Structure formats: C-alpha cells, structure tokens
Amino acid sequence: MMNRRHLLAAGAALPLAPATARAESHRAAAAPQGLADAQRFEVGEIAVTVLSDGAIRLGPEVLQGIDAQGYATLMERQFRDPETFRAAVNGFLVETGDRRVLVDAGSGGAMGPDLGRLMANLSAAGTAPEDISMLLATHLHPDHVGGAVNDGGAVFPNAELVVHQADRDFWSGTAPDGSESFFALAQSVLAAYGDRLRILTGEEEVIAGIDALPLPGHTPGHTGYLLTSGDASLLIWADIVHVAPVQLARPQVTIGFDVAPDTAAQTRARILDRAVADRLMIAGSHIDFPGMGHIARAEEGFRLIPAPYPYKA
Ligand SMILES: [Zn+2]
Q: Would you say residue 1 has pLDDT above 70?
C-alpha cells in the first residue's frame, strides 16, 4: 500500500502546472452555452448555487484503512465502478442579502484539465469575479483555492479571503518533502489576498446567516460553513468525505491527503452523528454534483439521501 509520503510525492507531481499551461487550461475549461454544471438551491432566504469544478479519480491506493477488495465491494454495493470512480470537486456560490460569497474557488489551473471548471460555471450562473465580496476557504488545498489565483494574482479583485488561523499558520510553514507544491500554492493564495485576509479562530459568525464551524484533521484549520435562514439550514462540510461510497459506510477510512488522519476520522464520526441527530442538510466538496443531501444511518455506517431536485413552484 502507498504510504502518505509516496502519496504526497505522487500528488506533488500532478498539480501545479506552469503558468502558461495554467492560462491555457482556463480557456479550455469554458463551458458550452447552456451546459453549465451549476445548480441553485434555496436555504430559506439564502440562495446557494453549487458549482462543479470537475471530478478527480480517487482509487483505493489513496485511502488508508481499506484494501482494494474492500473498496471494490463498497463501490459495487452502490452501483459504482471501482475501476473508474471519480470524486466530484464542488464549490458554492452563496447569495445572501446583497452579498455574493464564494465558498471555495475550485482548482483553477492547479490540477490539470479534468478540473478547473468552476470559474466557467460561475460565469454561466451570471456572476463575475468582481461580484464576489468574500471568499470563504474551507482549507488551503489546491482543489479548493487554486482557482483563487492566476499567475500569482488574485482572481477575485474585491474579495476578502476568510481562512482559519490554523490553516494559515500550517501552510505558511516549511513544506515537508513531497508536499512542496501544496505549500507553494497555499502561500501564493495567502500572498495574493494578504492585504484583505480575515482570520477565523473558532466557531464564530462570519456574516449574518453564515457561521464557521472548525472541522479539523483533514487540514489543521479545515472549516465547514453553516448557513441558517429562518428554519432552514445547510452545513457546507467541505472534505468530511472524499470517497463518499467508502467513507460514509466506514468513517474510519482516511485519505493520504489528511494532515492528521486520526483527528480527521474523529471529526468525520462526530459530524456524521450530528448530521443524523439534527437532520441537517449537508453539502460536500467531493460528493457527486450537486453534492447536497441528508445523512441517515445504514446497515453499515451511514448513507447519503440526495437532496430533492429543486423544481420551480
Ligand atoms: Zn478537497
């Protein structure tokens, strides 16, 4: 089995194309007219539009706590092909009052041509980069904030970048061998928004209707955002699962990108229990687009009950 060090090395070889390739992939990612992967939901008075960034292959070799046979069995039980399973990468446009807030920005040019489509989908949904007043980072991994920078410059000229202190501090440090590209990307994002950075330190209100909920483990400052309007709520739980068909059934399974795998597994178990107990609607960065639903207990672990399609009244 691949260990974490090998995985990070493999990950380091993948992302972070040079600047020229990055510009090209932005062009290539333009969505054909009328084919945007963008789905709007209402959470009380708040509008949430899920924006697809694409999908990424996550096979059994990136997971710990399950072997290839176990992975295949869980995939097949859920009618998924273990050989081709790809995990979604989603970001979220949140419109509340007159503010347009983006929760994560996709990968931009950082992770190759299968990803990096969020900006085209944002534009197809009628929002320009300058309309975004706040970018809430769930954490500083390249599939979440790669799209916030282009050639080292801020993609969102009017946005404040909101990030948890523990992520800011961790990613500002020295990279261990094999994860240099992740650190370099995070540092370029922090630098691009350095004069308009807002640092979270715990469970706190970001703006009216949006509370930050620290969910540490995957990264030290990994943070969910809880939206509340009237009786409606939605927890954008970010990377609580990466391979949902596996990790909902077996929350103890971790992924090589977890900075602190044991903490990540504990956080996952805790938030899954809370989602069931509170009947919380959740949205996941890596759950099949549009990534929204409820969590119920299953014969083994948990399962997702996808949100109903939001038909117009
Ligand atoms: Zn992620």
A: no
